[in-house]
Amino acid sequence: xxxxxxxxxxxxxxxxxxxxxxxxxxxxxxxxxxxxxxxxxxxxxxxxxxxxxxxxxxxxxxxxxxxxxxxxxxxxxxxxxxxxxxxxxxxxxxxxxxxxxxxxxxxxxxxxxxxxxxxxxxxxxxxxxxxxxxxxxxxxxxxxxxxxxxxxxxxxxxxxxxxxxxxxxxxxxxxxxxxxxxxxxxxxxxxxxxxxxxxxxxxxxxxxxxxxxxxxxxxxxxxxxxxxxxxxxxxxxxxxxxxxxxxxxxxxxxxxxxxxxxxxxxxxxxxxxxxxxxxxxxxxxxxxxxxxxxxxxxxxxxxxxxxxxxxxxxxxxxxxxxxxxxxxxxxxxxxxxxxxxxxxxxxxxxxxxxxxxxxxxxxxxxxxxxxxxxxxxxxxxxxxx
Length: 385
Hints:
Helix content: 25-40%
Radius of gyration: 21 Å
Number of domains: 2
Mean pLDDT: 94
Largest sheet: 7 strands, mixed
Low-confidence stretches: none
Number of helices: 11
Shape: globular
Strand order of the largest sheet: 2-8-7-6-5-3-4
Oligomer: single chain
Number of strands: 15
CATH topology of the largest domain: Aspartate Aminotransferase, domain 2
Order of helices and strands: HEHHEHEHEHEHEEEEEHHEEHEEEH
CATH architecture of the largest domain: 3-Layer(aba) Sandwich
């Protein structure tokens, strides 16, 4: 197995004794991002007030082009940026009718699930929730709910954050909603730069939200949303960046930029964009595609599961089961001992992740076989306690 550790020396050598097996939670940043972070500072020092011209004329278009390439989007200008995905969630909601009907699942990340729960409490939304489990019938049940309901918004993850389950019914949902006045939002945070994703066939129908904190290796503060052309032209929740350039006249007063930029907010720290562009350039230089990254991680996951079986480790139930070949870049085990195992590993400076009764192990491009063996060996001791 080829090693890519040489590109992550600053993160890996900051605490050499630490084994970080939570790439799904906070992916290590490549070394090139340190120079990129400094470049953001230098640009501010050089241009001061005029730095926004550089950002809008150079930095943002480069980032848009990278994302469009990775997702096979036809037009990079459909992409806008924000410091977090919650900002997009709230802005999308501002475009919906009063007390909208929303279809979603019980496995959405907190940036959406907490907010939709509060909307429902406040009488500002009517929510229909489809359980993710049993996974075997999720696609059938979710598409049936989309078919039967008169929803204003359908919100679903491409990969569920609490299990790694890959949702393969999105095209069916798009087909169902194609002639309806319903907006579809795909949360792609656990799929972008992890699983190969081609949005060419649904780019005109679905919003797609993701960011750089995890598999894009760029850290926090650099989230994005692809906006299907012509959808929700004038969000009520709007910031001054939505009218920064290329303004369109409107008889109704407030002016909006063309393309995805009309969903922009206001001033934010742009250093994440510099880091994101640096990572994307590195991947191009190394000829390292998402497909290659996915293959690397799948090999590590397979090795981990083989070692767990061989050593008869009691980690609990793999969720979803091993029959699901396509999954996110982490393995989730359901166990009453999830927290105690997590704590035992932490004592040994091994970083994994726990969500309730789910123990999660995340694998990344900076891991190799020896990391898997070290993890499994530590688990032998941790599970015996």
